[in-house]
Hints:
The chain is an alpha/beta fold. Helix content is 29%, strand content 20%. The chain starts with a helix and ends in a 20-residue tail after the last strand.
Amino acid sequence: MQWSKEEAAAARKRVEENSAVRVLLEEQVKYENEASQYWDTFYKIHKNKFFKDRNWLLREFPEIIPVDQKTEEKTQESSWDNVKTGAANCFSRTHCPIMPEEKNLGMKRCGSSDGPSKARSHFSNLDSEEHSEGPLKTELFPGSSATFRILEVGCGAGNSVFPILNTLQNAPESFLYCCDFASGAVELVKLHSSYRAAQCCAFVHDVCDEDSPYPFPDGILDVILLVFVLSSIHPDRMQGVINRLSKLLKPGGMLLFRDYGRYDKTQLRFKRGHCLSENFYVRGDGTRAYFFTKGEVHTMFCKAGLDEKQNLVDRRLQVNRKKQVKMHRVWVQGKFQKPLHLTQKPSKLVSPLLSHD
């Protein structure tokens, strides 16, 4: 849905009001330094009962299915919400009409990265091109024999992990990595009855920690899933996180993003005194949330050297008929691809005909 001018103005006014009073600086430092503890406490309380399984993932992100399996899926209805193939391909850049909000930013060639990330993995001394071109030794790392690899960042209790594993069960050549900086969440994933160590590796990892290694080398991932995770990170650290994640992708790999958009009902519901900085808030349980614009998302991923394939604002009206409440939801969704070939600036050549003594 599209908002009326009156609705947009009311949302802006509400944000101005609830962000007028900022959280004290010393409290902000505490929320930053103890972020993992707040999320750990969250999962100890709620276990895997708080969030619903993300059965919409395949509809929005068909890229998480290996190409060979996509062909097979076209002959039957999706196992997730009985989504038909046509719906699964809804956001294909080839078949979908560009939405009005996509016309300015959609399908743009992004700029190059500001520079290499300082992050290093256990395998940082290995050449990533060697891994992408030749067979990988099975003893090197979990999933090294797979031909299609996915990483979900911020897996929580597995609300994306298990729908994905369910879809990949007929694709033994695929492997799913999933991480979270809350150790309690990772433990919930590993204890789940559907967890398969032969096709999944769950591990504790803080994406903001430059020295925290991954259990696999750079440049091997086909897909990275970053769904409702970046918003929980301090805005000053977001770019560094994206830069490091882009290094994990193989050429042609996709980073799939979805998160809170500016003026989502979650932002409008915050009361005065919960604002940390502009469009960044803290909940009562100590967890945090940022609310993005499409332009901000475009800039961050472009600076990481990724090409924009999709970048849209998803506005929806949710109605609770029982309570007779209408809620305006706003999300930003994007797909960003690592270039197949890194472009190099041509060297300046001086023609001998134009040279001077």
